[in-house]
Amino acid sequence: MKKSVIILIVSLSIAALLIGVGIAILFINLNKEKVPMSAEGFASTMTQKGYIVQSSKQQFAAYDYVEKSYISAPQDLSYKVEFYELTNEEYAKAFYENNKAIFEDSKSGIVTSSLNLNGKNYSKYTLSSGGKYKVVSRVANTVIFLNVDDNHKDSVNKLLDEFGY
């Protein structure tokens, strides 16, 4: 009997330690600053990956807080990834929050997943709902936006991970 109590106590202690370490790692990661990609870096990288890349700055000419913007799509045009470089972080935060609210308002059908992260200089919101996968991800004064069919989720997540978004 005593042996099983000791094993239980040791097991619970190890579990508590692992949970504590996990929380500490999460806290450290959320307080780490991410390095934003430049608009030119986005365009260049996407072009090298074989995507069609086009400036969309003219589309936002009336909005002087949009410094640069690009839309990229794979050769089959099955989805698009939008990149925005804004004049400062405050505009990027507002841009992020506005698009996040639009995504939340558009929820339809079964919501299969949702994620909301806020770190030192970044924010990320993802939503899978109604056969769509939607992401708005901000790092400093830049934002990546996408609204794709669920079947492209893995492809775009691979890009986002590579870019640090």
CATH topology of the largest domain: Protein Transport Mog1p, Chain A
What spatial order of strands do you see in the largest sheet?
Answer: 1-2-3-7-6-5-4
Report the portion of residues in β strands.
Answer: 25-35%
Sheet with the most strands?
Answer: 7 strands, antiparallel
The topology string of helices and strands comes to: HHEEEHEEEEH
**What CATH architecture of the largest domain would you give?**
3-Layer(aba) Sandwich
Work out the helicity level.
40-55%
The value of Rg in angstroms is 20 Å
The count of helical stretches stands at 4
State the shape: globular
Structural class: alpha+beta
Helices and strands in order:
Blueprint: H1 2-30, H2 39-48, E1 52-55, E2 66-73, E3 81-86, H3 89-105, E4 111-118, E5 122-129, E6 132-139, E7 142-149, H4 153-163
Antiparallel strand pairs: 1-2, 2-3, 3-7, 4-5, 5-6, 6-7
Describe the protein's architecture and organization.
The chain has 4 helices and 7 strands, in the order ααβββαββββα. Residues 20-27 have low confidence and may be disordered. The chain is globular, with a radius of gyration of 20 Å. The chain has 165 residues and is α+β, with helices and mostly antiparallel strands. The protein has helices spanning 2-30, 39-48, 89-105, 153-163, and strands spanning 52-55, 66-73, 81-86, 111-118, 122-129, 132-139, 142-149. The protein has a 7-stranded antiparallel sheet with strand order 1-2-3-7-6-5-4, sandwiched between helices. It folds into 2 domains: 1-31; 39-163, Protein Transport Mog1p, Chain A, CATH 3.40.1000. Helix content is 41%, strand content 30%. A hairpin with a 2-residue loop joins strand 5 (122-129) and strand 6 (132-139).
